[in-house]
């Protein structure tokens, strides 16, 4: 007989969100509670497998008694807390943040942003054509993935995934200040000369497409990338005995990329280079 451990039950906290009484487990964030209650709060830097960094500030909400708006992704729920997600102040803050981001960063491949810009009536163009952009272009220095820092919002998720939260490779970090800040390897050396092990876990957590599979990048450039035609099949990696789960994204009977379920207790969304990129043998029909 298989026994499933239940773990230590967590106390439920009672508080209100937009006038509605809600309950959330002790330790849950305001963002967790909002999502459980069906309240949509936009966020870019929050990742379900990473510690919140409070970098993007898009998820700010009002909390009664707080002097400033608070980031919902990291603020823990408290008994009796009164949260307001749709105040004029919160909406104005999100509008400004979205305008600043969209004026300086290419958000064309960022999911949901187009809808948020419309919802909050954000007008990034009001800053003019001289708004700061890197204009570096995509960096294509390997056959596995592409870095396009013109799309980077400096959410730190890739740094955390590469660092002490998951991979412990520490190949990348943030270099520079202000508009010169960017993700870089040690001494700003080429990626091929760095400690990168090409696990691709940074791609898994990137919210904007600044990091993408080479296959996806090439297909987008050719105009053939179409997520509406893609199917997803979860299976088990056959390279070793760990049992990592893989989600195969297939378009036109070809695997176009591989991800991993974030709720899987073995991988939590992370893979090695073989699991994430070693799928070509499956569809090499010449051998």
Description:
The protein has helices spanning 30-36, 88-104, 113-119, 157-162, 201-205, 214-222, 273-277, 280-283; strands at residues 12-17, 20-25, 60-63, 70-71, 82-84, 145-147, 172-175, 182-185, 211-213, 231-236, 245-251, 254-259. By secondary structure, the chain is of the alpha+beta class. The strands form 4 sheets. It has a 5-stranded mixed β-sheet with strand order 2-1-5-3-4, sandwiched between helices. The chain has a 3-stranded antiparallel β-sheet with strand order 10-11-12. The longest helix is centred in the middle third of the chain and has 17 residues, at 88-104. The radius of gyration is 21 Å and the shape is globular. The N and C termini lie far apart (44 Å). The mean pLDDT is 88.
Which terms summarize this structure?
three-stranded antiparallel β-sheet; 8 helices; 12 strands; globular; 4Fe-4S; 2Fe-2S iron-sulfur cluster-binding protein; iron
């Amino acid at each position: 007989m298989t026994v499933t451990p239940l773990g230590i039950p967590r106390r439920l906290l009672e508080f209100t969100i937009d006038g509605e009484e809600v309950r959330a487990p002790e330790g849950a964030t305001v963002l967790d509670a909002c999502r459980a209650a069906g309240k949509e709060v936009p966020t870019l830097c929050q990742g379900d497998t990473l510690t919140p960094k409070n970098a993007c500030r898009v998820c700010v909400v009002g909390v009664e008694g707080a002097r400033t708006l608070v980031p919902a992704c990291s603020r823990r729920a408290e008994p009796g807390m009164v949260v307001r997600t749709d105040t004029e102040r919160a909406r104005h803050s999100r509008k400004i943040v979205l305008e600043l981001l969209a004026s300086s960063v290419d958000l064309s491949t960022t999911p949901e942003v187009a809808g948020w810009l419309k919802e909050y009536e954000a007008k990034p163009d009001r800053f003019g054509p001289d708004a700061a952009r890197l204009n570096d272009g995509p960096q294509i220095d390997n056959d596995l993935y592409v870095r396009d820092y013109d799309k980077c919002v400096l959410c730190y998720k890739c740094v955390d995934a590469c660092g002490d939260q998951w991979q412990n490779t520490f190949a990348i970090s943030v270099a520079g200040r202000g508009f010169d800040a960017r993700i870089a390897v040690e001494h700003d050396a080429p990626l091929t000369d760095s400690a990168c092990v090409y696990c691709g876990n940074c791609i898994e957590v990137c919210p904007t497409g600044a990091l993408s599979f080479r296959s996806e990048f090439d297909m987008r450039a050719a105009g053939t990338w179409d997520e509406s035609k893609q199917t997803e099949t979860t299976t088990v990696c056959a390279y070793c005995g760990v049992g990592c789960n893989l989600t195969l994204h297939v378009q036109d009977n070809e695997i176009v990329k591989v991800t991993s379920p974030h709720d899987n207790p073995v991988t939590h969304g992370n893979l090695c280079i073989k699991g994430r990129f070693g799928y070509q043998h499956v569809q090499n029909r010449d051998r």
